[in-house]
């Protein structure tokens, strides 16, 4: 790598690993470093094998980029970094020293697939993980257990898993997953009940008695909230009620019947 790229790389590591990193500055460093990696054919290395030192630096930059993407909540960016890292984790595994970030990022990617309901891709990704890591790595076991909870419909276990995350970044995708679960529960509740007490709705939707969040969610769903009754009504006052004009339909049917008799 050029001396300028080396300086950028060192600045990126220093800033990103600081107690309170400037994520915008990290994004600027990453953008410039990706241009440099592209020119050196290190974003998706192929052809002539590069030096192990260059490959290690490139892998480290991409791993920082993946973590940065989660912190700035940029899922497409995270997906791109993971796709680029897969080449390093598979094609160059014999040439490079093992990466400490590989399984944490692999677990994050599994969680991303779950949060997007891409179950088939989730299982395909699992097949590419070494069997012992499925049993031993807390980073892999966490999303695997979550998928089992989802299949069981044990949404309370999914919620409780927030207290057992192996890394803080996992919370981002778990919160997205909980949003999907809330909407599914909300859709079922609308069909099963005409109303629910506020406290019961908060428990059912995993709002932990956070009234403000519940009220915002109710507003998004178009529900009516009665503060006086402390209830949520799943049908709003503005709902259109379509009345079937039964009398006119009966009269019209009889008229048609008489006309048919005359024809016969």
UniProtKB/TrEMBL annotation:
Where do the PCI domain residues begin and end? 76-248
Q: Superkingdom, according to UniProt? A: Eukaryota
Keywords from UniProt, A to Z, are: Proteasome
Example GO biological process: proteasome-mediated ubiquitin-dependent protein catabolic process
Mind naming one GO cellular-component term on file for this protein? Answer: nucleus
* Residues annotated as signal peptide: none
UniProt cross-references to PROSITE patterns, sorted A to Z: PCI (PS50250)
Q: What is the similarity comment for this entry?
A: Belongs to the proteasome subunit S14 family.
What is the designated name of this protein?
PCI domain-containing protein
Species of the source: Rhizophagus clarus
